[in-house]
Amino acid sequence: MSIAGKKIGRYLFALFLIFSMNFIIPRAMPGDPLTNLLGEDVALTDSTVELLRSEMGLDKPWSEQYIDYWWGILHLDLGYSYHLHSAVSTILLSRIKWTLMLSLPSVVLGALLGTFMGALAGWKRRSARRKMEASSFLMIYCTPPFFLSLMCLYIFSFRLGLFPLKGFYSTGSPIDIIHHLLLPVLVMTLFSSSRNYMIMRGSVLQEKCNLYAAFARAKGLYDEEILFRHIFKNALLPIITMLALDFGFIFSGALFIEIVFSMDGMGNLIYDALMSRDYPVLQGSFLIITVMVVSANLLADILYGHLDPRVSRY
Fold first, then answer.
1. Over the stretch 75-89, which tens digit does the pLDDT of each residue have?
2. Pick from 259, 123, 115: which is nearest to 198 by CA?
């Protein structure tokens, strides 16, 4: 089997194990599995409990329940939320698009800005401009996300009135949606770029001390030629790892932003489901996050192999 096939096999096996644990944990918890799946705040009569147990297949042996569980996943049937009174798959599909519109531009812009500015800062770290730039990014990196979100919301929305105070839209037009998303996307981009900036700056500082950088200079290359033709590719490896984590935890990472800006996306959905013990919604959200984590890490593995051929052997 090829190396790529082995990697894909490992990740598929990881998905299988995680999905199986998602089936086992609620049923292995102390107490009634129906209570664990529906949440503790749901008050039901004995006849309703028996009816639900039969409809959900909890009266069957574990082996049959396990097969039904996988059948539901393959048909995007993730259960029913008795707190939101809707199918979990329908709820997730209605929320996921808004979180993607909020998070994807932030991750991409943060990666581009942080990576290139961090590379230049690590290459010319002694200049006064780069020192001020590094101090600014470090301050943003050390600021709690909710605090910066509240400050931006207070200054630009409440005091200056430049942006809406909450929500994804008012009228639903494209211009209106962009207007609502602009400030939270800016805040998330600042956080993402500041972290990528600090990582890339440290990586370039480490790589430029290696012998291959001195050899490139001895060949007649200067400044940015050495940086972008030789050092940049090697220094990029830690950023790829962080981007894989970013795409993996894109929904939970938007949690603070969505709460502060009162946006009904995946982050707020997970928070509300956790507070109300809505286990079906939590399980469905967990499955989506799992797929994204595994897919992002598989993509990172492939990119690693292209950037560093030594990694492709493993």
1. 878 877 877 778 888
2. 115
